[in-house]
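Morning!

As promised:
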Amino acid sequence: MTADPYATGLVERSAAAYASGVPEQPADDGFFGPASVTWRTASDLSAPVAGLRALMTQALHPLAMAGVDQHSGWREDPVGRLAATSGYLATVSFGEKAAAERAAARVRKIHEYVKGVDPVTGRPYAAGDPALLLWIHAALVESTIVARNWFGTPLEPADADSFVAEMVVAAELVGVPRGMVPATAEQLADYIASMQPELACTPAARESTAFLLDPPGLDEDMAEIWQDIRSGVIASLPGWACEMYGFRPEPMDDRRRNEIRQALGVLDAVFLGEPGVLEARQRIAARVRATRRA
Amino acid sequence: MRRLIGTAVAGGVVLAGLAVALRRRFGPVRLRRGVAALQLVARGGARYASSAPRLFAAAGEQRQRLRQDLALETAEDVAQTLGAMKGVLMKIGQMASYVDEGLSPSVRRTLSRLQDSVPPMSAELAAGVVEAELGMPPERAFAQWDAEPIAAASIGQVHRAITRDGRAVAVKVQYPGIAEAIAADLDNVALLRRMLRITAPAQDVDALLAELRERVLEELDYRREAANQALFAEFYHGHPTICVPTVVGKLSTRRMVTSELAVGARFADLAEMSQGERDLAAETIYRFVFRSLYELHAFNGDPHPGNYLFHGGGRVTFLDFGLVKHFAPDELHPLMQMARNLCVRNDPEEFRRSMELAGFLRPGAPLRTEDVVEHLAVFYATIREPGPLTIQPDYSTAVVRRFFDVSSPVAEYVSIPRSYVVLQRINLGLFAVLGELSATRDWRSIAEEIWPFVQGPPSTPIGEAEVAWRANRRVPVP
C-alpha cells in the first residue's frame, strides 16, 4: 500500500462522486430539498473533519468494524471505499428520490452478503442489522454537527434539531425502521451515550483509523499539514472515544482552531478545483437562494 | 521594485507546492522542475494565444453577472466564500497568473476555479460597504447609484453611479471583511511556510514569505490602485488616443475606488470593425505598453482585452490598474541595450554581451553567437527592420514556444531573470491581442519613436498627434 493513490485518488474520486451525485436537471428535490438544513448548510469546509470523525466513531463498534474489515476490501482500495461512501452520501443528500432509492437499494443488497463473526467479541454480525446501521447513521449525523461547531459554520440549535430530523429518512433508506432513529439532537446525544458499553477499540479499528489519521508515506511537510486535520478530528472526538483510542487531544484555543480551519480551507480549495465540483455546489446554492427569496 | 515579481513568483511556488503536495506529484516536478515548468507554461501560453478573445469574452464579468442568483447576502456569506485561506489563494492566483511560471495544469485549474467560485454581492451588501466607507448610503453619496453591479473585480465588484456634481463614474467596491480575513490568514505563517518549503526547499522561504505577505496586504488597499491609476491618468493626460479614466479621490477609500465611467466598444466588437480601425487601436495599445515601460517605468501587469475599451480612430481607454509593476530605471537599461545592440547597432557580439549582463544568457556558454541570435530573433521579429509588418495570430504562440523551446541547444543556457518574468506578459498579452487583430504597422519605426536611445521622429498620424502631448506633458520624462 502506497500513499500515492491515497492522496491523489481521494480528492479526484471523491470529487467525481460528489459532482455526479448532484443532478443537473432534477425531476424532484430528492428527500431533502432547497429549504432543508441539509441543503442550506451544504459545502461546509468542516466536511473532512466530519467524515474522519464519523469513521473514527463508527470504527469503535466492534461488529460494525468487523464487517468493514472482513468484507469491504479497504486495505486493497481504501480510496475507492471512501470515494464510494462520499458518492453515496451526495446522491442521498442531493439526488432525485429515485436515484437515492436506487443507491440505497444497492447498499442494502451488498449488506446482504456482509455477515460473519467478530474475532474479538466472538459475536456474529450482519451488515443489514438495523442496530449496526443505526450506529453508522448516528455517528455520521452527530459528527457533521460537531465538526461544524468546531471548525465550520455552527448550526443554530433549532437547525441542529431540524438536521437530525431530516436525516431520519437517510437511515430508513438503508433499512433502519423509522421508530428506532433519533429525531432530535438530544435524542441523538442520548442514543450515542447509551451505546458506550457496546464500544471498544479493536485491533481492526486501531489499524484502519491509524491509516486515516496518518496515511503512510506522506513527506514531512505534507504530513505536518495533515497533522492539522488530524488534530482537529481528535479534538472534536468525545472524551470516551479519545480514551478508547488512547489519544490525548491537544488544547484548542481560538488560534489553533483557526489554523485548522485554514488547513481545511486549503483542502476545500483543492476539492473545488476538481472538475464539476463548483458547478455542483452552484446548482445547490442557486436552488437554496431561489427558495430563500421566494 | 523587485518585490512584486518576487511575490508573484512566491505565489506560484506556494500554489505549485500546495497542489503538488496535496496530489503527491511533486517527485517528478521537483526533480525536473525547470523543464517541467517551462513545458507547462508553453502549453498554457499557446492556449492563451489561440483562444484569447473567446476566453476573455467568456471570462469574469459576464459570467458572474449571470450569477446574481448566487449573490452573497451577508458578511458571513463572504467569510464562507473567501475566508479560511481561500481569499489568500485567490489573490495569490491572480498574481501567479501574471507570471505563469511553474504552474502545473492542476494548480492553474484550482486557481481559476477559485476565481470563478466567488459570486457577486447582493445590492444591500454592496451598499453597506459604501455606507461604511463614506458614512452615508450610496443613494446619498451619489446623485444616482446603480444597485446592480456591471462587472466583477478582484475581491470586489463594479457599480455605475453619477456623482453629485454630475459625473458618470464606475465604483469598485470591495467585499466586506475580506481584507481582514486575508490579513488574518496571512498570519498563518506556518501553513504558508510549509507549502513554500515543499516546492522550494533550496529557496530562502522566509524572504519569499515576507514578500508574499507584504504584497498581498498592499493589494487589499484600493488606495494603492487608485494612486497607480492616477499616475497613469496624469501621465497620459492630453494624449490624442490613450485614455485613462480619472480617479475621483474624495470618493475613493481603502475599500472603494471611484473613477470616471468609460464607455466604449469591447474587444469582441473591435474584431468586427474595419482592418483600418483595428490597426489604429493596435498602434495605440502598442504605444501605451512601451511608452509606459520606457518613460513611466511602469508596466500594467494585466494587458488583457477585457481591460480595453475602443472608441474609434485609434482611441483606447485602459482600465484596471490593480497590478502595476514599477521598475527602477536601471532595471530596464539591460533590456534596452539588448534591443539597441541587435536592432539598431546590428552588433551580434554586443547583443550577446548585453544578454549576459542582463542575466538572460550564461556567460561563457559554449554557443556560437549566430546561434544565440537565431534562437532569440523571433522576439525581435517585429522590430528588426523598418517597414509595414502584419502581426499574425500565431506570432505570440511562436514567441512563447520559442521562449520555452527546451529542445534547442541554446535553451539550457538561457533563463529569465526574476525581475523580467513579468514582461512575459507582453508576449502573452500584448502580442496575443495584436495578433488577434492581425494588426499591420511599421512597428520598428514606432519603436524608434519610443526608444529613449533613438527618439525617432513621428512615423504615423498618431505619432504626429503625440508631439503636442509630449511637448505639454504634465509629468516630466527623464
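The longest strand of chain A covers residues 115-117.

Hope this helps with the figure draft.
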